[in-house]
């Protein structure tokens, strides 16, 4: 390091990269910036459903390498797992994961930005591995499209989102409660899936007599409260009335 204040950003997706960009914009060269993430690429998650239903592999189209992009803004990147934060000692415990078997290290900071994102819990859903699908990363999205193309034989499909849990060690009173992490994907996936099935598999259904039925479930009673109550309720009614 150069002796300048060190800003350590934990997480290299939207929030972490946005923080690195803005801190560099405002602080110029007055600080050193390091981004830590367990993967060396940005995973553009919002577009994954569009990619698979348009016939593209999101592992190819939705992954952007981070190291060179960050280097252009003089931001250092470290590929590692974040194991813990020592707030009193102002240091982060990490384990490099480019290759297995690395020891643990401490990295000191003057300022820390925590942008690690959500931890998925599909492994805690009984039967998910055998019967469930998701589009939250390239592997699972490709698994879904493979199932639809090669194994799906018609029948009910339920698309939904689950309640968002903000940690397991208690929540401070000042932190607002978010009932759902993101409201848009269930609707987007439902509409895209219905269109894909209608356009790609219509002839199969006609020949076999099978049919598809989809159901939309949400963790909230409105599609998106940010649009206002009337717009959110109207949007839900439109989705329901359109089948």
TrEMBL record:
It comes from the Bacteria. It holds the Pfam family Pyr_redox_2. InterPro entries: FAD/NAD-bd_sf, FAD/NAD-binding_dom, SQRD. Residues 6-145 form the FAD/NAD(P)-binding domain. Signal peptide: none annotated. GO terms for molecular function: oxidoreductase activity. This is Pyridine nucleotide-disulphide oxidoreductase.
